TrEMBL record:
Heme binds at C422. GO terms for cellular component: membrane. Gene3D superfamilies: Cytochrome P450 (1.10.630.10). Belongs to the cytochrome P450 family. This is Cytochrome P450. Keywords: Heme, Iron, Membrane, Metal-binding, Monooxygenase, Oxidoreductase, Signal, Transmembrane, Transmembrane helix.
């Protein structure tokens, strides 16, 4: 953008403000302010997240305006909803009046044909294709390969070390698992380049969509373009291998999607849809799982009694194995307490702070009008910490999840809810349990840094969670 255009843009702001004041919005639109055009309350929210005060920021809005209010986030007018009824309204589609629709930054970075942008028949078709690979029956065969990736990672990055930064290492681990299991991308220069591009892309996922050279948004768009170019090359290679019968359509996610055809022998997903949804899978399976693993390690360092129970469960499984024998699906089914610890971690520190949907038509909710095309912003942290739902919510208590049916529906939503539940839920469960098994049976650790963390937009402990580690032997 030239300097003259930039000056013109800022000169337009007072005119836009004047025009907006002259409009008379419907009295039924929720209370609140849209703020400065384009920017709105985006910077306030991002600042609060980085200072780890986002929950207080939300509480203040709820105190001032109630559980439904209007604001402007990332360039679009938005309605913020809060509570169990609001979660149900959002995740059940509001009677088909609410559709998928992300912020401009997410849509432009991940692509407009990813699952978070699709609705109706397109959403069902693409979701069904992804679930066919990510369902438990399919993932059972990949437990051994995930086991292999975790052991290799620990040998490379943990053994022989006295201190490690957990979060960067967990991101490396989850990225390698994704590359190996989902894309069939072997270790080497191409995988290393993909990781660098991906980390640059993630910086602008939640950003004000101003495409200028000095912005995060601009840098993320460039990184996204490089990743999509790499993925195109991988897709074309795998397409040729399948055509020549040199590969199986079940060896990884990309091959699986390429091999899917309908009754007319037409490919179920277009190449563009495959690439855009692979981008989404990278984002969904990389940072979220890495953050969950990091915060479980943090919890186990701070809660000796929780650590002791996890260790006992995992040692019993380790003792039942022959030396070098990988974990199996049956072993994972025995890790019930460990997974309850993971669920409680997700309750207290959900990797996804919130998300967006879009009103497909003028929509009524709780006596207010949500105008067609407006964003709807939902967030998970508030119901997770509601005393009426989870008594003594600041206490870490895995027993809350001994009977998950006791939790009211649409209150615990780290993986979404209803028909909008994340299709990668089972993949994340396997990944988490395999990694924690080897970490607790092979190492002990204690924290070297404080417990502060911020969100940008996902939670990240200060110093990447620096820990002092010591190898341990199976007792």
């Amino acid at each position: 953008m030239s300097f003259s255009l930039l000056i013109s843009f800022f000169l337009l702001i007072p005119i836009l403000l004047l025009l907006r004041r002259r409009r008379k919005p419907s009295k039924r639109v929720p209370p609140g302010s849209l703020g400065i055009p384009i920017i709105g309350q985006s910077l306030d929210l991002l600042r609060a997240m980085r200072a780890n005060t986002a929950e207080k920021w939300l509480e203040e809005r709820i105190k001032n305006y109630g559980p439904i209010s209007k604001l402007s986030l990332f360039g679009k007018p938005t309605v913020m909803l809060y509570g169990q009824a609001a979660n149900k309204f959002v995740f059940s589609g509001g009677g088909n009046t609410i559709v998928n629709g992300q912020t401009q930054s997410i849509r432009m970075i991940l692509g407009d044909r990813n699952l978070l942008e699709l609705s109706g028949e397109d959403h069902r078709r693409v979701r069904s294709a992804l679930v066919s690979f990510l369902r438990p029956e399919s993932l059972k065969r990949y437990v051994g390969k995930m086991d292999e990736e975790v052991i290799r990672h620990l040998h490379m990055h943990w053994h022989g070390k006295q201190e490690v930064k957990v979060l960067p290492l967990m991101k490396t681990l989850t990225f390698n698992i994704i590359c190996s299991l989902l894309f069939g991308l072997e270790r080497g220069e191409q995988r290393d380049q993909a990781l660098d591009c991906f980390q640059a892309m993630m910086d602008g996922i939640w950003s004000v969509p101003i495409n200028m050279p000095f912005t995060r948004y601009n840098r993320s768009l460039k990184a996204s373009a490089r990743i999509q170019t790499m993925l195109k090359e991988i897709v074309h290679t795998k397409k040729m291998e399948l055509k020549q019968k040199a590969a199986s359509d079940r060896q990884d996610l990309i091959s699986c999607l390429l091999g899917m055809v309908d009754e007319d022998d037409k490919q179920v997903m277009t190449e563009k849809e495959i690439i855009h949804n692979i981008m989404l899978v990278i984002v969904a399976g990389h940072d979220t799982s890495a953050i969950l693993l990091t915060f479980i390690i943090r919890i186990l360092a701070n809660e000796p009694s929780i650590y002791a129970e996890v260790l006992q469960e995992q040692e019993e499984i380790a003792k039942s194995k022959l030396s070098g024998e990988p974990l199996t699906w049956e072993d994972l089914s025995k890790m019930k307490y460990t997974w309850r610890v993971a669920m409680e971690t997700l309750r207290m520190v959900p990797p996804i702070f919130g998300g967006f949907r879009k009103a497909a038509t003028d929509t009524e909710y709780d006596g207010y009008l949500i105008p067609k095309g407006w964003q709807i912003f939902w967030f998970s942290a508030m119901t997770h910490m509601e005393n009426s739902i989870f008594p003594d919510p600041s206490k870490f208590d895995p027993s809350r999840f001994e009977n998950q049916t006791s939790t009211p529906p649409y209150c615990f939503i780290p993986f979404g809810a209803g028909a909008r539940t994340c299709p990668g839920y089972e993949f994340a469960r396997i990944e988490t349990l395999v990694a924690i098994h080897y970490l607790v049976t092979r190492f002990t650790w204690k924290l070297c840094s404080d417990n502060f963390f911020c969100r940008d937009p996902m939670p990240a402990p200060s110093q990447g969670l620096l820990v002092q580690i010591c190898p341990r032997k199976l007792s």
